[in-house]
Design brief:
By secondary structure, the chain is mostly helical. It has helices spanning 2-12, 23-37, 41-54, 59-71, 75-88, 92-108, 112-125, 130-193, 199-225. Helices cover 80% and strands 0% of the residues.
């Protein structure tokens, strides 16, 4: 990545825009370019910052500064420098490079929608740039896949919640059935624990009832067999 960035720097950043640029700016940018070629990125960054301090409208210094910041993984600072370079740059193709690089940063961070917008702006300024066009198409595809995955994830989460609730209801019903079975078992056990009348006891009670009935019948027959005394009216 660093080698690729330095290659861009060597090819594009060595150009100094405008003969009216102050000699001090020109000299500081050249100093920064030499340091960048030697991989002395901190020294290069310092030189570019000095050039910007001397002329805040120096788009080339801003662009070169963004390149060395990106090579040092200072992504946030590089993004800001590219934005500033795009604001002050007058040449469309150079301006397009700043937007292209901003799109690349967004793309690497998987922020596909901002990357798409940056690439679109780069293509407005440089419609023939094949790499920008390719990256734009790629980001659109990646964004579509992300949206699809998010929709599937949301759908799965919804189904998981539904299944979880269903499982909870099943567990509740299972507990209720378990308690009912337990109560039925306790009731059955209580019935089993109640004292049962043996066959012998039943026969004894039946015989006693028969004997009692016989005795009652005998008393009735005896009473009916005795002669009744006539009752007469007494003569006074």
């Amino acid at each position: 990545m660093r080698t690729y960035i330095l290659h861009i720097l060597i090819l594009t950043a060595l150009m100094i825009s405008g003969p009216c640029m102050a000699q001090n700016d020109r000299s500081l940018i050249r100093q920064g370019n030499r340091a960048a070629r030697s991989n002395a990125l901190t020294e290069a960054e310092t030189a570019y910052r000095k050039a910007i301090a001397a002329n805040r409208e120096n788009s080339q210094a801003l662009y070169n500064l963004a390149i060395v910041q990106l090579a040092q993984n200072k992504t946030k600072e590089a993004m800001k420098s590219f934005q500033q370079a795009a604001e002050v740059e007058k040449v469309p193709r150079r301006k397009a490079k700043s937007f292209h690089n901003m799109g690349t940063i967004y793309q690497n961070q998987k922020q596909y929608q901002p990357a798409i917008e940056a690439y679109k702006e780069a293509l407005r300024l440089d419609p023939e740039n094949f790499k920008t066009r390719y990256n734009l198409a790629l980001c659109k595809k990646l964004l579509k896949n992300d949206n699809k995955n998010n929709n599937n994830k949301n759908k799965n989460n919804k189904n998981n919640k539904k299944n979880k609730k269903k499982d909870q209801n099943k567990d509740k019903q299972k507990d209720q059935n378990k308690n009912k079975n337990k109560n039925d078992q306790n009731k059955s056990q209580n019935q089993q624990n109640q004292p049962k009348m043996s066959k012998q006891n039943a026969e004894q009670l039946l015989n006693a009832a028969i004997q009692q009935e016989k005795a009652t019948k005998q008393r009735m027959n005896k009473s009916m067999s005795q002669p009744r005394r006539k009752q007469y009216d007494m003569n006074w």
